[in-house]
Structure formats: structure tokens, C-alpha cells
Amino acid sequence: xxxxxxxxxxxxxxxxxxxxxxxxxxxxxxxxxxxxxxxxxxxxxxxxxxxxxxxxxxxxxxxxxxxxxxxxxxxxxxxxxxxxxxxxxxxxxxxxxxxxxxxxxxxxxxxxxxxxxxxxxxxxxxxxxxxxxxxxxxxxxxxxxxxxxxxxxxxxxxxxxxxxxxxxxxxxxxxxxxxxxxxxxxxxxxxxxxxxxxxxxxxxxxxxxxxxxxxxxxxxxxxxxxxxxxxxxxxxxxxxxxxxxxxxxxxxxxxxxxxxxxxxxxxxxxxxxxxxx
Length: 277
Known about the structure:
With 277 residues, the chain is α/β, with parallel strands linked by helices. It folds into two domains: 3-162, Rossmann fold, CATH 3.40.50; 168-263, N-(1-d-carboxylethyl)-l-norvaline Dehydrogenase, domain 2. It is built from nine helices and ten strands. Strands 3-2-1-5-7-8-9-10 form an eight-stranded mixed β-sheet, covered by helices on one side. Strands 4-6 form a two-stranded parallel ribbon. The chain is elongated. The relative contact order is 0.08.
């Protein structure tokens, strides 16, 4: 990367996304100079990971020599940060949210606003290789878009220009693919634990399911009692889940959705009373 392409960056937030994104940018040759977070412990912990970073205690960055400010905070806090943030005129300010629009940053006076959204699940305890993480960029003008795209390409081989509405749709899809799937895996593990069975038993099944769905249309390779119409099995499973009303409701809803998808809404099994509808 040319020296002219290296940026001085301030990061607002010290949660899971910032914890991985800031070090990735530093490793790519950028200078992360400042970390802000409402949590003193979090901002100081993240700053310690970065050789040039200092924890800062205010959102007034008017006198700070940075070219880019990345806002990596929870979606619910983003509007408040945008309302309070002060930057020098011409500073590029981008948020990292998948669901929030670019326009949310318009209150920041003098900023060139954009989005740099990493499409990945982050936990502080697990390292992430940014080289293969899709980074979605958007900006209010062509030059800001170019700068954010260059920033994205410095840490990942997968940078895409995606506008706000399409990014929101992608984020929704990601919730189904990641967050909901993870919750279902948690339910599976709990059921195994109660039967004194190791979770490793499911690992080959999980791996094959993900691999097969990545190669083919997932709907076309759906298996299981719902798509087969094994009504006796469905009812038995619902009976077993009686101690867990939330899980029972999830099982019923997903089974009905599988059947509706497979049959085009026709001949769907009624999991309330066992009769066809």
C-alpha cells in the first residue's frame, strides 16, 4: 500500500466489531490513533492492542489529526453518536452497521459520510481473518466512496458497493443465516445435554448441511419429517417439547414454513390438531 493511501483513523466504539476491525486496519499499515467508548475499561483495553492508539474521552474530534472516523457502535446508539460527534471539515465518517442507512450520519457537520459494513459475526474471543470478509461500502459522493473502497480493499479481497436499501436486505438475510441458525444450534446442544449425549455427534450433520446448502438451492435439498409429511414424528416431537413452550413454538412454526415452501401453501399439515388444512 502506498504511503499516500495510508489513513489516520479514529474508532468510535470498542465492542466486537471494533475489537477486530481496528487491529486489521493497523496491520494493513493505517494508523489507528484514537479509541472512544463510553466504557473506560473497553476503550483502554482496545487501545492497548494498537501501538499508536490512545483512549479518548470525548466525541469532540475537531482538533484531532485524523482523516477517517469509523463508528462501530450498537445500532441503537448510532443516532446519538452522530448527533454528538464533531470532526474537522472534510473528515470521512463512516458507520459499520448493516441495517442503518447512510443518511443517519447527515447531522455530522462538515463530514463526508459513508458506510463500511463488515459482513461477519464477531466475538472478542475468536480471531477473524479479514482477508475473506465481505466489506460493503457506500458514500454520499464519489471521492468518499473511492476512499472507503480503498480502505476496504486494504484489509479484504472482497469489497462491494452496496446502497442502503440493498444492505438492509442483506442484513436481514444474514440474521436468518447466522443469528437464527446459531440459536437453533444452541437449542440442539441443550437437547443433547439433557440426554447426556456429546454435541460432537451433530458435527458431521451440521457440516454436511452447510456444505450442501452452499452448493445448491437450500429449499431444493430440504430433508426431515416436515417435508416428508411424517405427521406421527412431528406430533411426537411436539410432545417431547412440551416442557419448552418457546422451543415447541419454534418447531411448529419452522415445520409449517417448510411444508408451505415445499407444497406452495397446499396440503399444509396443521400442527395444532394434526389435521390437514
